[in-house]
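User: Show me sequence and structure for the first protein, then do the same for the second.

Assistant: Starting with the first protein.
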Amino acid sequence: MSARPPAKAGRNQGGVSLIELVMFIVVLSVALTAILRIFIQSTVASADPQLQRQALAIAESLIDEVQLMPFTFCDPDDANVDSASSSAGCASLAESIGPESGEGRYATPQFDNVNDYNGFAMTGITDLTNSAVPGLSGYSASIAVANAALGSLTAGSGDVLRITVTVTGPGNTRVVLDGYRSRHAPNAAL
C-alpha cells in the first residue's frame, strides 16, 4: 500500500466563509422584508373594496325602495288619486315634496309616495320594520328628492323627481347614487 501524501497547506478548501454567510443572510432578509411589506399592504387594502361594495348595496337597496313607490298628483289616500291628471284634481290631499304630517318610514302611516322620502336619514341601517340590520351599524344613509329635468320634461313641470341616496360608512367610505322617477298619472279623459 502506498501512503497518501499529506495535503498541501496552501490549497483552498471548499465551502463558504463566515463573511459570505452573513452577507447572504443580510441580502435574504432585505428581500423578504420587501416581499412581506407588499403582502401586508395588499391585505390591509383588500378590506376597502368590501366596505365600498357594502355601501353600494345599501344605496341600491334604498334607491330601489324609493323608486318603487307611487308618484301621483294626489296622496294615495286621496279619493281622486286614480283619476287626477293634475294637483287641481285632488279631492283634498295634493302631493308635495316631503312627507305629509305624521308619515315616516317606520311610522303609521308609512311613506306612500316617492317624494315622502325627501329628508329621510338613518344612522345604522335598519329594515322597514325599524330592526337593525346586523353588521351595518357603522353605516348611515340619507335621501334627497327634488324636482328635476329629464329629456323634454322640465324641472318646473313637476313630472320628474331626482332621488339622491348618500351612504357613508367605515374608513371614509362614501357612495352617492342618483335615480329618476317620472310621473305616470292617469288621464282624466280616459
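Switching to the second protein now.
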Amino acid sequence: MTSKEAILAAIKNNKPEATPLPDFLTFPEEENLVDRYEKGLTGNGGKLQVVNSMEELDAFVKEHYSNDLLIASLVEEVKGNVDVSKISDPHDLEHVELAVLKGEFGVSENGAIWMPEKNVVHRVLPFIAQHLIIVIREETLLTDMHRAYEKVNVADDGYGVFIAGPSKTADIEQSLVIGAHGPRSLTVFLIRK
C-alpha cells in the first residue's frame, strides 16, 4: 500500500458521523422598510427617489438627461434612444450615458436590488452605462438577504445579479473612486403602492 492509499484509508476509517444541516435562520420582519432601504442604499453611494407614478420617473429623465445623450431604457414609460434588443455586440453599448431598468425586488438590509437577466437583456448594460436608474415597487421590498435568497431562482433566467450602489473602489492609499469599474451613479425610483 502506498502512503497515499494509507492516508485515504485512514481518513475513510475515521470519518465522523454525518450531522444534519442546521435550520435556516429566520429574523423578524422589519418595520418601515422604505427608511431602512434608503439607509442601506445611501450607505452604498446610491440615491432613492420615492415617487407615486412612472410619470415622475419620465419627468426626472427628461429634466436631467438631454436628448443628445444615449439612453437605453427597458422601462416602457421612459423613452430611450438606444434599442437594446437590436444590439448583438455588447461592446456597442459602451457610450450609453443612462440605463433605465426594472428591478425585481429590493433588500432593505443593504440597499441591494435583484436584477435577473431578462431585466437587463445584455449582462453588461447595468455596468457599462455611466449612470443607472433602477425602478422597483415598494411592495417588493424585503427585510434581509435571507428572504431575498428564498425568492431568487437562478435556474429561471440562468443569470442574475444583486446591484447595491454605483461602482466604487479604494486602492492601497485608501482613495475612494466612484465609477471606476461601472456606473458613476445609481438612482433607485421606488414606486409607492
